[in-house]
Amino acid sequence: MTLTPGAGVLAARILEDHVLSHSDPATGLPVGPRQKPAAGQASSPDGHTSEQLLQLVLNSVDDDKAEDIVQIDLRGRSDVADYMVICSGRSSRQVASISEKLGDRLKQDMRIQVRMEGKETGDWVLIDAGDVIIHVFRPEVREFYQLEKMWLPAGSPRAAEV
User: Fold this and answer.
1) Which of 92, 101, 77 is closest to 137 using CA atoms?
2) What is the three-class DSSP state of 12?
3) What CATH fold (topology level) applies to the domain 50-153?
């Protein structure tokens, strides 16, 4: 693909005309960098910070007896989200239940409509809550994919276990 000399100007004008968000509402795919709130400001339209969202997620999965809960700080490492939470359920039914209840709590308490994939099979459910991405696994599937190994710092105790 060859760019013409005016292509950069055209791209800049397109960016000015269209405000980029971190995901396309129709597809859910990333389309541009997320806008970072100024220090001390909430990141969601309803006034919730990513830390408040993270705390609700952690409380929810803990209340529903998720096991081996790990939180990973992605700030400065990824534009997709600020935090990632990885946890396990003992069975496909529990994985689906943890995910469903979390989605309901986020909708009720924070007015966040989450995107959820994989709930039908219950092996690995991916929940996109905007600033927090949640993975709920069956233990065998979690061991196979080893997401913690990819995202945790090399010296952390959990990364060494995996």
Assistant:
1) 92
2) helix
3) Beta Polymerase; domain 2 (3.30.460)
